[in-house]
């Protein structure tokens, strides 16, 4: 129709070339190309009344069209590669910025903690070296060390979160467990690194409707910390804002509401706050936190949503599936059945000055067929341990006559006899988890369990430390003379870890690469290999495979513990033949516990599901701590009997300005009230205890009166 015009051909070729460049979807491009040819041919037939006859002249005329198509596709592919490279560069820049931004806070806290510790240390003067550090300074040192350790833990979590978000790694339920929402939230709010005490007082928690949820504690705490961090960011610019955290139960879902009276979120920004890399209002933000929070809550089987009115409030609603009594019953039975294989026939000592809690612990542990003895304080415990050998001790920390810290320090020194030096001890207290865990570890205890706890939590925690060995070196330490080969390409990691293991009495040989380590293993005898997973040359995985395939029976059966900075390496470590896996940033005590298991104790066989039904009679789940209503009534009676004289004692201590007695009375009442679910009374006692610890005397009368009124109200309900 155009008489094969050359100008027309040039125009068509250029148009087709540009067309291909601008339309990047090849399917759509092919559809348009075929449709265009069909429409053009139909128009030709309708206009001329005849079909086109293909001749050599027509073929030669259109030979430039395929060339244009190929050039267009080539340019299009090149543009796509450039766009992908630019997008990758943008993502990497965002990733680097995210890690740098998120790590700034924990690194700043570590620097602050180290600076505070430096200021608390005595000056280096010969005449000052032998002077003891005062109690207040010692408490401050422990608190700062604990906060520094927590900052490191949060930093590692931030890195894992950023990498998981970028890689879109799934969050599996393998690490989920049943936990008390109230206890986890209280501990998390206490552990958060507030900039000031004033900020802490502006955060409130109400738990009138408590519940149990099925979660990974570390991931949930990250969600809560992220919400706290975002809300606290605006405290300086909104001095009247406060944070309210509350729990609410429902039929299908239970809820956590997190509300702050800060600046709020604009209507146009609200729908996008859970998108990755979206941020608004914070110039240094990265927009990854809430996106990862949403992934976590989805993995928990719930969700997270947000309501906000700009200038008034922002409220996040976190939903968790309701845990039925039957589900908890099955889970508790499973935990008991697994614990029975470990604890049956063992001997355990419960050390606690609260008769109420000793009764509950004995009820919890009764299905495990253990011999259980009781002690009312540390001195009584040492006397019992000097004449009997125990497999495990549960130790309260604050007791009259002798507290848990002093008792365990004396135990480790051998004052209860050489056979009792190495017995594992679990701290069990209502003290602040962050500080008490650090202090109890330093005293020689192997774990910390917060009061109150459920039956399943208690048994699971005790199982994890049953075969552990104390860190402190003592004359009968089972680690003395044990030979271990440590392999790590990082000189700093290698030296620090070797120093720690030698302090525990282990003979450590070090190597910086897998090839050298293999030669050392072939020429010398070792009882255990600890190896980094990622190393240049032969890595830890290949080293383990070589060992497992060796014809040397001694070498083939050598226990191996793998070390890595990433939790996702655990599966590869186990597949390579490693016996255990540890994260490098974990407490060294956990590594030592693994060493103790591999050197001294055979691994127990996992129980099958059928084992649970064998002991179904031993677990009964009731609304409170798995006890029957008659048992609960008995506990209430013991509580009222034990604290009948407390109001008079509180008044007398207040009149005599006896802060020490007030603190001790409040501490004991706090724990017992929490055990029985008297939350308001427990919080009132905790407030008085913290007030006395800080050395303040104002408002004590008001706090004491609040406790007395709460006790009177409970007595009235009982009668």
Could you explain how this protein is built, in words?
By secondary structure, the protein is of the alpha/beta class. The protein has 27 helices and 17 strands. A 5-stranded mixed beta sheet has the order 2-4-5-7-6. It has a 5-stranded parallel beta sheet with strand order 9-8-10-11-12, sandwiched between helices. Strands 14-13-15-16-17 form a 5-stranded parallel beta sheet, sandwiched between helices. Strand 6 (303-309) and strand 7 form a beta hairpin. Helix 10 packs parallel to helix 15 (455-465), helix 12 (378-387) runs parallel beside helix 13 and helix 24 packs antiparallel against helix 25. The longest helix is centred in the first third of the chain and has 57 residues, at 64-120. The N and C termini lie far apart (107 Å). The relative contact order is 0.06. Mean pLDDT is 79; it is low at 283-287 and 601-625.
Q: What's the helix and strand layout?
A:
Elements: H1 6-22, H2 26-48, H3 56-61, H4 64-120, H5 135-167, E1 177-180, H6 181-191, H7 197-201, E2 203-206, E3 212-215, H8 217-232, E4 243-248, E5 253-260, H9 289-299, E6 303-309, E7 313-321, H10 325-343, E8 347-351, H11 355-365, E9 371-375, H12 378-387, E10 392-395, H13 404-412, E11 425-429, H14 433-443, E12 447-450, H15 455-465, E13 483-487, H16 491-503, E14 507-511, H17 514-523, E15 528-532, H18 540-548, H19 553-556, E16 560-564, H20 570-576, E17 580-583, H21 588-600, H22 610-614, H23 629-642, H24 646-655, H25 659-675, H26 679-693, H27 700-718
Parallel strand pairs: 2-4, 8-9, 8-10, 10-11, 11-12, 13-14, 13-15, 15-16, 16-17
Antiparallel strand pairs: 1-3, 4-5, 5-7, 6-7
